[in-house]
Specification:
By secondary structure, the protein is mainly alpha-helical. Among the domains are: 70 residues, no CATH class; 59 residues, Arc Repressor Mutant, subunit A, CATH 1.10.10; 67 residues. It is built from twelve helices and three strands. The protein has a three-stranded antiparallel β-sheet, with helices on one face.
């Protein structure tokens, strides 16, 4: 009877999106209470794990503990940290921050799956100083992270596992966007000061509120841009080199080979080639079309 009732509850939970508002609210209340009860009993489990000898619990015949238990508990911890909005402390020692949201409001998700939420709460992300709760949580997580290093070294590549190339949490994406906007503002301020004649790197960094390395990178970028502009001006006036580009282009579409042959930086050669293609001085890039043939390559263009 108890098992039948439990199965009925789980079925309602799986089909939560299809329930009537009253049944859904009743199911949510019962399941939330059940969750709290189960989680509160975890302290008993910790005591059992501490006191019962390891050799008894690791008995393969009875399977008291399994790998699946480990990964389920880790997954549960991740979900609960998300619900409680644990915040990752970011930055450097002199400037620590977390990502929060302001002006939070309910927005529709337009989800086609009835089990997905119809609305989510989101706001405008911003960087904020970590509070006492953030720091205490991070200290505890750091302790667990240190302990987990006994079982996993995240710097060692594991055969068969590829680290995802996307952001693990939305806050990481928010942080990347905020940083990109900050970099644009910082670059603009550095440029203004350099244009005004200020050359002291430490003074610029202090006025802008950035690291000296960012100022050094900006100066190097300006130097490089100036060099490329001067090289491009020389190339455009160098009739021998431009003629060589035209001759090489009909024989090879390889920009690296052309740059090496005429002795100009690749970026400059690419810019001039693009300009020549736009002006119709040389054919456009090699394009393979259905049926064969290379219409932009005068050497291999199909004849009627």
């Amino acid at each position: 009877m108890a098992q039948e009732h439990r199965n009925k509850q789980m079925k309602r939970l799986r089909n939560r999106g299809e329930l009537s508002p009253q049944t859904r609210a009743n199911t949510d209340y019962k399941m939330a209470k059940k969750l709290r009860s189960k989680l509160n009993s975890l302290n008993e489990l910790e005591l059992i794990l501490d006191k019962i000898p390891k050799e008894k619990l690791s008995d393969n015949e009875y399977k008291y503990v399994t790998d699946n238990h480990v990964f389920t508990l880790l997954k549960l911890a991740e979900k609960i940290m998300s619900i409680l909005e644990f915040k990752k402390i970011r930055g450097i020692e002199e400037y620590l921050y977390v990502i929060r949201e302001k002006n939070r409001r309910k927005e529709p998700t337009y989800a086609w799956n009835p089990n997905y939420p119809k609305y989510i709460i989101k706001g405008i992300p911003f960087r904020d100083a970590p509070n006492e709760k953030d720091i205490k949580r991070s200290i505890k997580l750091s302790e667990h992270s240190y302990t987990l290093e006994a079982f996993l070294d995240s710097d060692v590549p594991i055969p068969g596992y590829e680290k995802p190339n996307h952001y693990p949490i939305i806050d990481d994406w928010y942080d990347a966007v905020i940083q990109a906007n900050e970099d644009v503002k910082i670059s603009s301020k550095i440029k203004e000061l350099l244009d005004s004649g200020t050359s002291d790197i430490k003074q610029i960094a202090k006025e802008v509120g950035c690291q000296t390395m960012q100022v050094e990178n900006a100066i190097e970028s300006r130097r490089r841009s100036k060099e490329l502009k001067e090289a491009k001006d020389r190339l455009e006036k160098d009739s021998t080199a431009t003629q060589m580009i035209k001759e090489f282009w009909v024989n090879t579409f390889n920009r690296d080979e052309i740059a090496k042959a005429i002795g100009y930086p690749r970026d400059v050669v690419c810019s001039v080639i693009e300009q020549m293609m736009a002006n119709g001085e040389i054919p456009k890039d090699l394009v393979i079309v259905p049926g064969g043939g290379f219409p932009n390559n005068p050497r291999t263009e199909k004849k009627d």
